[in-house]
Write a structure and sequence with these properties.
Elements: E1 6-8, H1 13-23, H2 27-30, H3 58-64, E2 68-73, E3 78-82, H4 84-90, H5 99-102, H6 104-108, H7 112-121, E4 125-131, E5 137-147, E6 156-163, H8 165-192, E7 204-210, E8 220-229, E9 232-240, H9 245-262, H10 268-282, E10 288-296, E11 301-307, E12 312-315, E13 321-324, E14 342-345, E15 350-355, H11 367-379, H12 385-395, E16 406-413, H13 418-422, E17 425-431, H14 437-451, H15 456-476, E18 481-487, E19 491-498, H16 518-525, E20 528-533, E21 539-546
Antiparallel strand pairs: 1-5, 2-3, 2-6, 4-5, 5-6, 7-16, 8-9, 9-10, 10-11, 11-14, 12-13, 12-15, 15-16, 17-18, 18-19, 19-21, 20-21
Helix pairs in contact: 8-9, 9-10, 14-15, 15-16
Length: about 550
């Protein structure tokens, strides 16, 4: 095969050809300092001359190249030449046959359309790291070749394939390792999230977690629902900055700590204060945003505190959108900040959503625009909390390849009417006067529990618990005092509040003691009991009884 009439149109080819032409100048000009053409040169030590590149036999050079080389000609890409390495990899190929028939390995790699592009454009094209039928991976470079060094579009195409199997296998091992690490982080993340949400009596709740796409490492988003007793519910959502297993591990520690602090029944801002110190101890370089909120059905409000997190959104019973913008403090782990609690109405018929930044933050969009878009989606989202949750995620354009984690927590305080409304009742009595308040409280409790048609045994236990809680408040508390009875479809709740902030504790009374048995009696007969300090000063002591099913 004569290659002298072909010239590969590689970058710089024409410049080198022009340089060779310029060096072929007259003898008298060479005397002016010109450099002679690169031909065979005689070494000064008498050794045999070294042949110049132009004098090397092209076919011998290509046959010795370890890379795969093929030359195809014309619109059918008929085979003009394949080197020994190509023949060793794919077998001998007959000259003159069209590539579609004689080079099936190139057809399977999708290289034939690329050859057409190279012929039309006269520009080289590259196809990186494709696995061929021989099991090896190659990077193919297709370069136009013009007859006799012409400047027009290529008459032929030189196919040059470099074996990159080792690189491809190393890259695949790296990708597999990254996939395993991501799967580990996702598994850890999901295992640290609540497997089943707690179900408060007065709220309907749904949540979803969507990890980032395959190109994004999993983050530290989390949510939780914690029933505090006495009808109150704590709701939490947070986001640990950073990605990977470390962020998921920090998230797990913070979520566990939140559940522990919630059992203390502290105001939201005090819980965040404790979390802030813990986050610094866990990792001084790791910060997290968080919202901790408490819903009390008797108050019809959501009391919350925010550590640098996005605002809670609420749609009230009239469809009006509310945004809990203030107050907010810096993220957890920054230290040196006193958080504050705020509140937002959440009465019957309202829907609220807590979320992480993956739902509303986009690289090409302002964050406020994302929150406003979420508000619009929430204003038109109806149905169960799970339906609302799914609609919000879809409206935000969250897909499987989303570039950030997304956590969403939706809660509804349903407006109950008719027979269902009869299962949710409240009754309250101001405890005025001295010791005579105790018999009035017992009579009030007896009348209310009778009107609610409780069984006789539950009626008697409720009256006894009321008597003990009121007596304890009269002895150790200060005015104002109040008794509140509440029933849901699952339990009876009895709560007494007074103006003293000293919390009672259960203790073992000695046989000769005349007091100290009231809380012990309540703890024995009730399903659960507890106490907390109230925001305006004072305390609330409560107990609850599970209602018989049916």
């Amino acid at each position: 095969m004569n290659f002298t009439r072909w010239s590969a149109r590689l970058p710089g080819t024409q410049r080198r050809a022009a340089a060779r032409t310029e060096t072929a100048v007259s003898t008298d000009r060479r005397g002016e300092g010109s450099v002679p053409a690169a031909r065979a040169e005689q070494r000064a030590d008498g050794a045999p001359p070294v042949p110049a590149v132009d004098e090397l036999p092209t076919r011998d050079v290509l046959d010795r190249v370890p890379a795969l080389v093929a030359l195809v000609h014309g619109p059918d890409h008929r085979i003009a030449y394949v080197n020994d390495a190509y023949a060793a990899a794919f077998g001998v190929r007959p000259p003159g046959a069209p590539a579609r028939e004689a080079l099936p390995e190139l057809a399977e790699l999708g290289l034939l359309p690329l050859l057409d592009q190279v012929l039309r454009s006269g520009k080289p094209r590259t196809l990186k790291s494709r696995k061929a039928v021989d099991g090896r991976s190659y990077t193919f470079t297709c370069t136009p070749v013009a007859e006799n060094g012409g400047d027009g579009a290529g008459d032929a195409v030189l196919v040059f394939a470099t074996d990159v199997t080792d690189h491809a296998e190393a890259a695949e091992r790296l990708r597999a390792s990254e996939r395993r690490q991501r799967e580990t982080a996702v598994t850890l993340q999901r295992s640290l999230l609540p497997q089943e949400l707690e179900e408060p009596d007065d709220l309907r709740i749904a949540a979803t977690y969507q990890p980032g796409g395959t190109e994004a490492a999993v983050g530290g988003d989390w949510y939780d629902v914690i029933t505090l007793g006495g009808g109150r519910t704590a709701l939490v959502i947070g986001d640990v900055m950073g990605r990977g297993v470390r962020a998921a591990a920090v998230m797990g520690q913070l979520r566990t700590a939140v559940r522990a602090y919630a059992r203390l029944d502290l105001p939201p801002h005090e819980v965040l204060q404790l979390l802030d110190g813990l986050a610094t101890e866990i990792d001084a370089n790791q910060i997290a945003t968080c919202v901790y909120a408490i819903h009390d059905p008797n108050e019809g409000r959501l009391v919350y505190a925010s550590a640098g997190h996005l605002p809670i959104l609420v749609r009230d019973e009239n469809g009006t959108m509310l945004r809990a913008d203030e107050p907010t403090g810096p993220p957890l782990g920054t230290g040196g900040w006193m958080h504050a609690s705020g509140s937002i109405p959440l009465g019957p018929g309202s829907t609220a959503v807590l979320y992480t930044d993956g739902l509303v933050e986009r690289r090409n969009e302002d964050l406020d625009e994302g929150i406003a878009s979420l508000e619009r989606a929430l204003s038109g989202a109806t149905g169960t909390p799970q339906v609302v949750c799914d609609r919000l995620v879809r409206s935000a354009g969250v897909t499987a390849d989303h570039d950030d984690d997304v956590a969403v927590l939706v809660l509804q305080h349903p407006a109950r009417t008719g027979p269902e409304g009869d299962l949710f009742r409240n009754a309250a009595l101001e405890l005025l006067g001295g010791v005579e308040a105790a018999p009035r409280a017992r009579a009030f409790a007896s009348g209310v529990l009778t009107s609610w048609r409780f069984p006789a045994d539950l009626h008697d236990l409720g009256v006894l618990a009321t008597s003990e809680l009121v007596a304890n408040s009269l002895q150790h508390g200060t005015p104002p005092m109040r008794l509140r009875l509440r029933r849901t479809d699952r339990r009876l709740i009895i709560e007494v509040t007074d103006g003293d902030d000293h919390l009672p504790r259960r203790r073992r009374a000695e046989p000769g003691d005349e007091s100290g048995r009231g809380i012990a009696i309540v703890a024995t007969i009730a399903s659960n009991w507890g106490s907390r300090r109230t925001p305006g000063g004072g305390k609330a002591v409560w107990c609850e009884f599970l209602l018989p099913k049916g």
